[in-house]
Design brief:
The complex is a heterodimer of chains A (996) and B (97). Chain A is α+β, with helices and mostly antiparallel strands and 996 residues long. Chain A is built from 23 helices and 51 strands. In chain A, the strands form 13 sheets. In chain A, strands 8, 9, 12, 13, 14, 15 and 28 form a 7-stranded mixed sheet that branches. Chain A has a 7-stranded mixed sheet with strand order 41-42-43-44-40-34-45. The N and C termini of chain A lie far apart (93 Å). With 97 residues, chain B is mainly β. In chain B, the strands form 2 sheets. Chain B has a 4-stranded antiparallel sheet with strand order 3-4-5-6, with no helix packed on it. Chain B starts with a strand and ends in a 14-residue tail after the last strand. The chains are: A alpha+beta (996), B mainly beta (97). The structure holds zinc ion. Zinc ion (ZN) binds next to loops of chain B.
Chain lengths: 996, 97
């Protein structure tokens, strides 16, 4: 195809290389510097999408990031495919592959437009009204249909092949937006020692100056002045210029998120370049120079391809050198559209008529248009349009009604004035105030260290825009503590286009209004918005949710003010009273890739491994995740499933000796003159009388009296404790200890050190444990008399210093060998070799769980859930009754915590010993009770016990300890299971084995 | 992300800190002498301040120290940070003895 809409005038479109790309499989030619939108327009293509709900044909409305219609999918392969990009922002390059979305089978003949014929049945709130019931129909019928018919692009089918990086940056002054105000601000702020970042979402910096052919600054044409200003800024070492960089979000304390698109515009990006960079900028001062967005007019059938914003057309002509149409009708409520009309006329388009909503049109731009022979109709409106895949004509009448005149056209320009882009200001929690003159919200009082300048502040005359930018730049540098090296002045010659504006529907007679779109992207009409108010919605936040206006990916950049105008008029309440929807980040859609950065794959979540991990891996262990730790779960031998492996591991440990990696246990070294007193206050137990060399099982509560953590504690010296915690609770416990120590008892002389990573812990359990260890240990007498159960000795094992615990979490004679982590694997392998004659068997967490459950030992987080007291868990014996105080003590006497019918830990034995209960299953007294059946407890742990040759379970049951022998019911989907309440200690209740 | 001025380390990003709830709520010296209601008030009742709020922070991924901050809950602006044991500034409304 040839680019018949290309215009060649002056410097535009000269010396630009040809670029070839495809859209919906068809090849096109554009010029370097084109966006996909300008290149398609150059080829006469306006139809680029189908609307969300009614599948109406849609074209380009804008030339920037506010575009609601022209959403495209870009990428030749699935691994580099991005849906929902704006054609107005996508830069073309040789080989670009783009496609339209939300159409089937093709853009021209889309079956979804059948919705158009049923549009009367798809009013506002139709989701809520239509899909209420039956519930099953939602999944089978409504959802798949909605997903297919309503939609945005398709997610790519393959993982993203690109790389994304994240950067932290600090600067004195961050300037958002490089239009006239931003450039002036940058020139002034950087005329000091302040470090300045200037960012802009577009490929080229300059903003509105790039499409201005009439203004001049300092005697230079606007675009020329822009180049000179950028050259000057580039020379300054304290300035960083960032184009293609969107400031998408404001976060507290001048923290601004920038998304830099590094390679999307390149045909062959270097392999070492990331696709995007996420900049997290902390700026001392911020200058917001975000500009303004032109507002559409709301009139019947204002959504056809070929109807666009007036200033967007001016941008296409002046900046990209393409004319969006040759027969133009202009519909406006302000002067800026006249300026656009004149620029289009100069490019060869025929301006059929300018329809001006205002009672009388006058002033520089109106006079100029008339002088050039353009017909101007004031106090008039466009009341309708025709044309399916492209607009064909406009119906024009007096504003109050009357006969309509039909004017042929292939382009309708519209302008309702400009809406300042206050998004970032509002995100910074600055207060907005409503300007009656601009019919828009403008920045009021600031909260953070920022100032708005230029059009985003509601200033539209170039002279005042530049002046406010310069002043803002100087102010920002000064507030950041820098003095300028002098002040420059700017000579601006530009004709103002004033600030007239309009919001709401242009029709005074709503009966005559057909469908007039307020929100193009979500297909919301003025009628939908009025319907919402008739159905009682008053607040704009409610109207928004009911109609979905402003809730599309463009977040209502074009639609919000018009929706407000419609509501305000309909319920006769002033605009500021109707409210304003909240602005939320991101300003424009931002990729997940940029937020994820390097946190993908192996780097998504850190993994902790013990020093013994590689040995377990080599033995073929299966691992499970415990917190961020990888723990050996079981060690299957050839042909074994988990059940068989665990049964074998249990049997070996009970009959001879098992070895277990317990290194993940949390460890805290508590040292100081007042260490014992601190322990007394933190744990339920009494510690004063615990002698050095002894161990004690400690229970820690939260202040509300519920179990928080537990673990074995060794007293190494009068002023030193070796505390162990649960694997997952280590950080939480240390943090709580620090809290009390620093904030409640700063007088105690105690120091806490996390030693989790310092020690490897090798548990050796079973009747032959002592025989295995004895030959390896130096300086410690392991005999039962010299080293009874619950004692600790220091000495050496395999020549390595050790803290040797005699402790058991299995009910067998047991030891836990603590050695410096670096020696963990060597000592483990030495013990394993020494255990060979005894058939030493490595076991994992599953066997550990079974063995401890047989003994009724609890696991915090399994038997407890944050509502379990020591007494509930059968640990009343661990509470030092004589102690005056400890964390949680007072709560234990709260009425609710001493009730007799609290859930208490008991054992459960199923009537059928082969049936293993499900953990978490609910327990009831009478399964025939009508629903809801009162639940009296739940199963906390349940296993097959190879030792007892039957299933076993632990449970929390209301008044459980007084129900010994009672038969309870556990209703399951395939029948009721009966089980008997027994004591929680199911194996060796007298503890003879561990005292051996 | 807040920028929090640790009294020991200086300004650091919020990611290094953990919030510790309302400040200046001392643990009763003799909890067992309190009625259930008094103890429940200590355990559970906290101000839900709109405006200046004194709260505890811990520089968990830094020096590990607890300190207090006076933060405006409507703007997130932190007026002042100060060490444990120090009092909030007298002019700050809502400060409790
Ligand atoms: Zn610190």
């Amino acid at each position: 195809m040839t680019d018949t809409y290309r215009v060649r005038r002056g410097d535009v479109a000269e010396s630009r290389n040809a670029v070839h790309f495809t859209f919906d499989g068809k090849s096109y030619q554009g010029l370097a510097g084109d966006t996909l939108a300008s290149a398609l327009i150059a080829n006469g293509v306006h139809l680029v999408g189908r609307s969300f709900k009614y599948h109406r044909p849609r074209g380009f409305v804008s030339a920037g990031s506010e575009e609601p219609n022209a959403l495209v999918g870009v990428g030749a392969t699935q691994s580099r495919y991005t849906p929902n990009l704006l054609a107005t922002q996508v830069e073309i390059y040789d080989g670009l592959v783009a496609e339209s979305q939300n159409r089937w089978p093709s853009l021209e003949t889309d079956a979804g437009f059948l919705n158009e014929y049923f549009s009367a049945f798809l009013p506002a709130g139709f989701y809520y009204k239509t899909f209420m019931w039956p519930r099953t129909a939602w999944k089978k019928l409504y959802e798949p249909v909605i997903r297919r018919m309503a939609g945005l692009g398709k997610a790519p089918a393959e993982p993203d092949a690109d790389r994304y990086t994240q950067v932290f940056a600090h600067c004195d002054v961050l300037i958002v937006g490089a239009g006239p105000a931003g450039l002036a601000a940058a020139l002034e702020a950087s005329n000091s020692d302040a470090t300045v970042i200037l960012c802009d979402e577009q490929a080229e910096m300059g903003g509105s100056l790039l499409s201005d052919r009439s203004a001049s600054i300092d005697g230079m044409q606007a675009a020329e002045w822009t180049r000179a200003a950028l050259d000057e800024l580039r020379k300054r070492p304290n300035v960083k210029l960032m184009s293609r960089t969107t400031a998408f979000g404001w976060y507290p304390h001048n923290f601004v998120g920038l998304n830099e698109r590094v390679t999307d515009h390149l045909s062959n990006p270097a392999t070492n370049q990331p696709r995007e960079r996420l900049w997290q900028v902390r700026a001392k001062e911020v200058v917001l120079a975000a500009g303004a967005i032109e507002r559409p007019l709301v009139f019947t059938d204002n959504d056809r391809p070929g109807i666009m914003l007036a200033d967007a057309a001016r941008t296409y002509v002046n900046r990209y050198g393409v004319v969006p149409g040759k027969q133009v009708v202009v519909f406006t409520a302000c002067d800026s559209a006249y300026r656009a009309a004149l620029d289009l006329k100069a490019a060869g388009a025929r301006i059929q008529v300018i329809v001006d909503l205002r009672k009388s049109a006058s002033g520089h731009w109106v006079d100029k248009a008339r002088a050039e022979g353009i017909k101007v109709r004031s106090d008039s409106i466009v009341r309708g349009t025709s044309g399916w895949l492209r607009v064909k004509s406009a119906q024009i009448s007096n504003a109050q009604g009357g006969d309509a005149e039909t004017v042929a056209c292939d382009l309708i320009l519209m302008s309702g004035g400009f809406t300042p882009s206050v998004h970032l200001f509002s995100q910074s929690r600055g207060k907005l105030s409503y300007s009656e003159e601009l019919r828009a919200y403008v920045p009021g009082e600031s909260v953070e260290r920022e100032r708005s300048v230029g059009a985003c502040k509601g200033l539209f005359a170039l002279e005042s825009v530049i002046e406010s930018g310069a002043k803002g730049g100087r102010d920002a540098a000064a507030k950041a503590g820098f003095s300028p090296r002098g002040e420059r002045s700017y000579t601006v010659s530009a004709q103002s286009v004033g600030a007239d504006a309009f919001i709401g529907s242009v029709m005074t007679d709503h009966q005559a209004e057909k469908r007039a779109w307020v929100d193009f992207q979500n297909d919301v009409t003025a009628k939908d918005v009025r319907l919402a108010t008739r159905e009682g919605f008053r607040s704009i936040e409610h109207v928004k949710r009911y109609t979905t206006t402003g809730m599309a990916t463009d977040q209502g950049k074009l639609s919000n003010m018009n929706a407000l105008g419609v509501v305000s008029k309909q319920i006769d309440v002033a605009v500021p009273k109707v409210g304003l929807t909240t602005f939320r980040p991101p300003y424009t859609p931002t990729t997940f890739g940029s937020f994820a950065g390097q946190s993908r794959g192996d780097l998504f979540d850190p993994v902790r491994k013990t020093s013994i991990h590689p040995w377990a891996e080599a033995q073929g262990a299966q691992f499970e995740d415990v917190g961020v730790w990888k723990r050996a779960w079981y060690f299957p031998q050839v042909g074994e499933d988990m059940h068989a492996a665990v049964a074998r591991e249990c049997k070996a440990t009970r009959e001879s000796v098992g070895i277990f990696d317990a290194s993940t246990l949390g460890k805290i070294e508590i040292v100081g003159k007042d260490a014992a007193e601190f322990m007394n206050r933190m744990y339920t137990n009494a510690w004063t009388k615990l002698e050095p060399g002894r161990l004690r099982y400690g229970v820690m509560l939260r202040e509300d009296g519920f179990i928080m953590d537990d673990g074995v504690v060794g007293r190494m010296a009068t002023d030193r404790f070796h505390v162990t915690t649960t694997t997952g609770g280590a950080a939480r416990v240390l943090s709580m200890m620090e809290d009390y120590l620093q904030t409640e008892w700063p007088d105690l002389e105690v120091w806490l050190t996390s030693t989790t990573e310092q020690w490897s812990v090798i548990a050796l359990q079973g009747p032959n444990a002592r025989k295995v260890l004895e030959p390896l240990v130096e300086g410690i007498d392991l005999s039962a008399d010299a080293m009874p159960h619950m004692s600790v000795r220091e000495g050496r094992i395999c020549g390595v210093p050790t803290r040797l615990f005699r402790v058991s979490f299995t009910g067998e004679l047991g030891f836990e060998v603590n050695v410096p982590a670096g020696y963990g694997r060597a000592v483990w392998e030495a013990i394993f070799a020494a255990g060979k004659p005894y058939g030493i068997t490595p076991y994992g967490t599953e066997t550990m769980h079974v063995l401890r459950a047989e003994k009724g030992y609890i696991i915090v987080g399994q038997e407890t859930d944050g509502t379990v007291t020591p007494d509930d868990a059968g640990l009343g014996w661990a509470v030092g009754k004589a102690k005056r105080d400890f964390v949680g003590k007072r709560s234990l006497s709260r009425p609710a915590l001493v009730r007799e019918d609290r859930k208490q830990l008991v054992g459960l034995l199923t009537t059928d010993p082969k049936v293993v209960l499900e953990e978490g299953a609910q327990i009831v007294l009478d399964p025939t009770h009508p629903i809801p059946v009162p639940m009296i407890g739940h199963v906390t742990s349940s296993y097959w016990s190879a030792t007892l040759n039957r299933s076993i379970a632990l449970a929390l049951v209301r008044g459980g300890r007084s129900r010994m022998g009672e038969e309870l019911s556990i209703p399951m989907p395939d029948g009721v299971i009966k089980a008997k309440v027994v004591d929680s200690i199911l194996f060796d209740p007298k503890g003879e084995r561990l005292n051996a | 992300m807040l920028l929090i001025n640790c009294p020991y380390c200086g300004p650091r990003p919020e990611a290094e800190f953990v919030n510790g709830g309302q400040a200046h709520i001392a643990r009763p010296a003799d909890p067992m002498s309190l009625t259930d209601d008094e103890w429940a008030a200590y355990l559970y009742m906290r101000d839900n301040t709109k405006g200046l709020h004194h709260e505890r922070w811990r520089h968990a991924n830094g020096c590990g120290r607890f300190f207090n901050a006076s933060r405006d809950t409507t703007t997130d602006i932190i007026k002042r940070t100060y060490r444990m044991g120090e009092r909030p500034e007298a002019e700050h409304q809502g400060a409790k003895p």
